[in-house]
Structures are given as C-alpha cells and as structure tokens.
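User: Can you help me understand a structure? I only have the sequence.
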Amino acid sequence: YDTAGATVKIVYSGATQGWLPQLDKGTELETPQTYNLQYMVVAGGGGGSGMKTGTGVSVAEGGGGAGGLRTVATKSFSVNPGTTYPITVGGGGTAGVGACGPSNPTYGTAGANSVFSTITSAGGGFGGSGSNPPQAGDPGGSGGGGGRGLAGGTGNTPPSPCTQGNDGGTGDPGGSPSNGGGGGGHTSAGSAGPGGCAGAGTVNGIRGVPFAPVTYAAGGAGGTASPGNPGTAGPCNSGNGGGAGKATGPGDSTGGAGGSGIIIIRRLT
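Assistant: Let's start by predicting it. Here is the structure, written out as tokens:
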C-alpha cells in the first residue's frame, strides 16, 4: 500500500496465502502477493540417425540436436498464489533404424517441446542422413547434424529471446572414414569430425547445495564408418541428442534415441 492516510488491517492466514487484508479504507489498490522464481526449461533431444551399409558402401549419418534450454539465474519470474501454471516436459525423439528406403528412413524424430507457463523450449532436431532418402539435419532448439555432404539443422528455431541452442554440423562430403555432422548443443555447435563432434551442453547448478551441478542439452555425436556400434542414447531428463549409428562393412547400425527434457523451478527463500 502506498496511499497516504490509508487504514489497513491484515491477518496472517498461513503459509499458502500469507497476509490477507481484512480492512483497507482510503485505498482501492492492494499490492498482490507474488513469489519470484528461478527456472530451467529443457526440451527433449532429437534422435540420431541409423546407418545403412552394404558391401563397399558406408554412409555416415548425423547426430541428434539437443533440446532447447532456457533458464534464468535471477529472481525475475513472478508467480501468484492460487494461479495455475502449465508444465509440460518434452520427450526425446526416437532413434533412426539401420535400414534405408522411403518407407523406412534411417533418420529418427525430433524431440518434443518443454513448457513452463509462458516459457517454451523447442525440441532438438533429428540427425540427417546421407542414405536413401538423403536428409539434411533437422532444425530445432539445437539443430541435428547432417549426413554425408549435407548441412546441419539450424539451432534456436523458432527463435527465443535468449539463444536456446546451436546449429548442427555439416557432414563430410566423402573420404574414409566419412563423418556425419554432430548435433548442436546449448553451448556450442556441432561439427563433422573427427568422429562427428557433438555440440557441448551447459553445466547448470540451479538445484543448489548439496547437489552437484549437472550438464544438460548436449548434442549427439555424428556417425562414422568405423568402428561399428549403435549410437548412444541421451540419458533421461538430460535433453541430450542421440548419437548416430556407426558401422563398417555389410550390416546396419541403429541410432540413439534423444534424452527426455526436464523442468526445474526453484523458489529462493
């Protein structure tokens, strides 16, 4: 209250609503009670592409992009008691399979958005493919890496006021071994090699003491023709992109699924 001559009587109702006015003569404006929060909103990471190989043929694929990460380290997000704030935690994208063709593409799917109130972080883009059908890296919170000779996806898509992610790397045009582009991460973009370098995630300590800081929203590694193994999946609640499959000689290799997102809300007392 800031009106001179006002008379105010307040009663403490409990921790939920705090102090409530019982009498407020001489003023019609009650300052609403608010709480200031920190938040971190991480979307699901994109899936990495699988790798289809044949005799004498190996096509490197792209890693999945990290889910977008938006955070605020100061007490600048205000909430009011009794008001509902929607929360949606985005799931990670599915992994690409190791068998090509229009009806069964090697690339996976994008991660899903995470939402806290008005704050939306975009899901990570899936990794692209140099196989049939060719596919550039998918745009998203961070872009997916491109397959052999193809561009990576654009990060921070759709744009947010503070950058939520980076671009995926462009895959090598050829060579032995050929490297797919790494998925973009929150801190840095992906690149082609060696081995399809993934974009770095961000270390965040929003949980506070005694919890150790955790790295979120790292990109998935791009594929390479050697050695042969499946792509690494993003851990649950990390927002990491899934790695692309790696294979050599005849045989197929699946990609890794993207990690699901996470939302952390912290009220500083």
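Now, to help you interpret it: The CA atoms of residues 156 and 163 lie 6 Å apart. The chain is about 0% helix and 25% strand. Let me know which part you'd like to focus on.
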